[in-house]
Amino acid sequence: MATKAALAEKQRAYYQRHKAATNERVRVYRERYKDAYTAYQSAYREHRRTTYRESPDMREQRLAAGRAWYQEHREEIAVKGRAYRRLPHVRERRRAYNLRPDVLARRREKAHVERQARRAKARGVRIRPRDIYERDAWRCGVCHRRIDPRLRWPDLKSASLDHIMPLAQGGKHVLANLQAAHLYCNSRKTDRGPGQLRLIS
Ligand SMILES: [Zn+2]
Predict the structure, then answer these.
(1) Which residues have C-beta under 5 Å from ligand 1, the single-atom ion?
(2) 141 contacts 179 by C-beta, under 8 angstroms
(3) How far away, in angstroms, is 200 Cα from ligand 1 center?
(4) What is the CA(147)–ligand 1 centre distance, in A?
(5) Residue closest to 131 by CA, chosen among 86, 164, 176
(6) How far apart are the C-alpha atoms of 97 and 92, rounded to whole Å?
(7) 3-state class of 184 per DSSP?
C-alpha cells in the first residue's frame, strides 16, 4: 500500500512538472482523432440500441448486475473513497471547490428551496410544478414563448419552476412568486446572478 501511494505521488509530481506539455499533447491528439472518436461512439450507441431492442431483458439484467456488484463492494468503495478524499491534493481541491462563490450560492439556494418546501408542506400547501405550468398555459415567463409539455428534464426546452424574485434576493417559494420557464431560460437567469432584477411586466 505504501509503495502504491508513493508511486501515485511520484506520478502526480511528474504530471505537475510536465503539465503544460502533457495537456497540449492531449489536446492535439483529441483534435486529430475527434471525428474517428465521434464515429466510434455513435456506432457503439447504435450497436447497444440494436442489442437492447432485440433482447429487452438484457438492459434490465445489466443494470441489476451493476446494482448487485455495487451492493457487494459497497464497504470497499466507501473505504477507498475516504482514503482518496484524504489525499492532500484532493483535499485541497475539494476545499477550493467548496469555497467557490457559485457553489456556495447554489447550495444556499437549494437549502432555501428545501426549507420553504418543507414549511409549505407542514402548512398543508403543496406546490405542484404541473399546476403552475398549467396556470401559466405552458408559456415561458422569461422569453414568453411556448413550452412543450412533452419535454422532460434535462431537456433545455423542458418546463421548470422559476422564482420571479430570486430566493437569493429574498423571494419566497410561494405560488405568486413562481412561474413556468424553459430550463434554459431559467438557468440563464441564474447565471446572471443575484443583484440584477428582471423587469416583471
Ligand atoms: Zn423561455
Answers:
(1) 140, 142-143, 182, 185
(2) yes
(3) 14
(4) 7
(5) 176
(6) 9
(7) helix
CA distance 157 to 145: 10
The single-letter code of the amino acid at 98 is: N
Peptide bond into 154 cis (omega under 30): yes
- Ligand 1 center from residue 137 Cα (angstroms): 13
Expressed in angstroms and rounded, the spacing between residue 11 Cα and the centre of ligand 1 is 47
C-alpha cell recorded at residue 59: 438492459
One DSSP character per residue, 125-158 reads ----HHHHHHHTTTB-TTT--B--TT--TTSTTS
pLDDT tens-place string over residues 103-151:
888 888 888 888 877 887 777 777 889 999 999 999 999 999 999 999 9
Q: Rounded to 5 degrees, what are φ and ψ at 84?
A: -60, -45
C-alpha distances in Å from residue 25, one per residue of 13, 21, 29, 33, 137 = 18, 6, 6, 12, 52
* Ligand 1 center–CA 171 separation, angstroms: 20
